[in-house]
Structures are given as structure tokens and as C-alpha cells.
Amino acid sequence: MKKIKIFYLLLLSPVLLVTCGNNDNPSPSNSEPQINWLAAADSSSKSLVNSFWNPTGKYFNTDNNGNTNFQYWPNGHALDVLVDAYTRSKDAFYLNYINQWYDGVKAGNGNTFRNDYYDDMEWNALAMLRAYNATDDARYKDAALQVWEWIKEGWNSNAGGGITWKLGMEYSKNACSNGPACILAARLYQEFGDESNKEWALKIYNWEKSTLFNSNNGMVYDNINSNTGIIQNQIFTYNQGTFVGSAVELYKIMGERAYLNDAVLAADYTISTLVNNSILKNEGTGDGGLFKGIFIRYFTELIQQDRLDASAKRRYLQFIEYNANTLWTQGTGKPAVLYGPDWSTKPGSPVGLTEQLSGSMLIEAMALLSATTN
């Protein structure tokens, strides 16, 4: 992979400042010391483990204050961060917890990876597929493929198609249960070559784009109720992110610029609208604490695409760097390295796993982007 340090420093020049919609993205002062993002990512991801890992249950607790209640879907994202850190560093510290996660999370979920929430299964399957790629541990491959079989059972003809959100709620078709499913299907196709998975990815994407995506401005609506035909038009960063990720994966497979354009449209809407002073907005604690970290993960995938316009790449790198700088200098509780739902404000106590994960994803993304490009 080609180093981009010279290109990256150019991005920080005031001459190249650009704006996202009506929101200025200030660049850090040249007089400020540059952050070592690799070191920051190590302290961040090790803090996730040290503050949230349950050594008895072998899963991540829901907060850093000893709350041992098991929650399935954030543990998938925690595995993702472990994989980020291990892929970056090859540090056996992270591999140790990746190896333990499988048994702990499976036991915590009732000795199965099956779950009534289709989106929750999708998050975990995506993370397990990445864990397999990072470690060659066949348990993760087999589990991801098994979970995918269960996910496909959620497709029905209500509202014209789509994967339902939850078992027993076949009328509720949500962006959160279709975007990740499309990404998973596309990655399974790329990994193992099963043509049926490519067809699944296309089918899911086409349904979500035609039903929940506003092609005029890049908004991704939350869900449609097939009983009433009503579309809930709440806009969340994580739905924007998984639509971006879906479009990027299909662009990789099909090579058609239209998919890249869809991803750019959704990304541009997010970074111009779902922000507060150019920082991704506070979407609360609990489930909402994880939303913008999910956007960052798939936004980072978009940034790495070769055919992305140079001006868009400049804007996107500047946006993500400004968010990361703000989080690290203003929003991180140190020395423990803890994050809250507002990336411009230090967290209170206790800190929830979901908020910690979003911050961890941003710092790992910054470490990746500051060092490499594809």
C-alpha cells in the first residue's frame, strides 16, 4: 500500500480548505503538534478492552462501571474494533481477545449466534467474517455463513421485498436490517465466489434504494411499515453509513460508477446535515451511541476507493480528521481514554460501551487513513 504522508500533509494546508454544505470544516493550526494516530489508536483500543472486557463471561460489558448485562449487537462492533487493531498492529494482545470472543458471545446469546433481531445478526456476521479474514479461524467463517442462512429467512414480499427488522414483525422493513445484509452478501460473494450472494446483494440494495433512499438529496429513511405504507423518515447516521457501505461493496463488484455516486450522495448529506459545527451529531447513549461510529466505518471504506474524485477525497479526509482531532483533544477522558456521545465534550460517568465503540472506531479509522491509501 502506498504511503500518503505527503498528500495527507497537503490536506492540512489552509489553501486546500473546503466546506461541507453550509458547514465549515476548520483545519487544525499548523502550530499545533501533530497527533500520532497509531499510538492514539493503540491506547484507544486497549482502553476498550481494559475498561469493558468481562474476563469471566468473555464478552464486553455494557458500561465501564461493572454492568455485566450481556448485549449482543454491540459485541459485534467490539469484535470489529479488535480486528481493526489486530490488522493494524499484529499485536497478540488483540488476538487473545478475538480468540476468546467467540465462545463468550455465543454463550451470552444463549449458546447460539441466532437472534430475533436480523440487524443484530448482521452486525455480528460482518464482524465474524472480518475476524476470519484476520485470523484464519474457521469457527468465524462457519458461524458467519450459518448466520447468513438465518438472515435470508427474514426476506419477504411485504412492502415489495426487503429483510424484516425482527422475527414476528414481518411488516417492519428497516434500513438497519437491509444495509448491513447487503454489505454481508457482497462480501461473502467476494470472499467465496457464490453467485447467489451477489444476487442477494443486488436484490437487497435495489429494494432499499427504491424504497428508503431519497435520490435527490442522499437521505436514507429509517423504515417502512408495510401494513400502513408509511415511511418513517427519521434520519440516523448509521443508516446513512450502511447505505454508503452497500453502494461501495457493489461498486467493487460491478465496477459501475452509479454505485459510487450513490455512496457520495449519502455521504455528502451526512457530513453536511447530521452534524453540529462540523462534528457528527450527538445521537445519545444506548443504541444511539453506536450510530456515528458505524457511519465512520463505512465512510472510511468510501474514502479509500481509487476512483473517488480527488476533491471529494480531500473533503472527506478533512472532515474525518477534524472529527478525530476534536474527539482526541476535547472529547477524550484521559488518562483512561474514554469517550462520550458528544465528541467535543469529555464524557461523564459511567461510560457506555456503545459510545466508547464509536470513538474507538473513529480513532482506528484515523490511524488507517493517516498511514495508508489503497
Explain what the structure shows.
- By secondary structure, the protein is mainly alpha-helical.
- The strands form five sheets. A three-stranded antiparallel beta sheet has the order 5-6-7. It has a two-stranded antiparallel sheet with strand order 1-2. Strands 3-4 form a two-stranded antiparallel ribbon.
- The termini are close together.
- Residues 1-31 have low confidence and may be disordered.
- Helix 5 (118-135) runs parallel beside helix 7 and helix 9 (237-254) packs parallel to helix 11.
- The longest helix has 21 residues, at 310-330.
- The protein has helices at 5-11, 37-52, 72-89, 92-108, 118-135, 138-152, 175-192, 195-212, 237-254, 257-273, 291-303, 310-330, 353-371, and strands at 19-20, 23-24, 53-54, 59-60, 172-174, 223-225, 230-232, 275-276, 279-280, 332-333, 338-339.
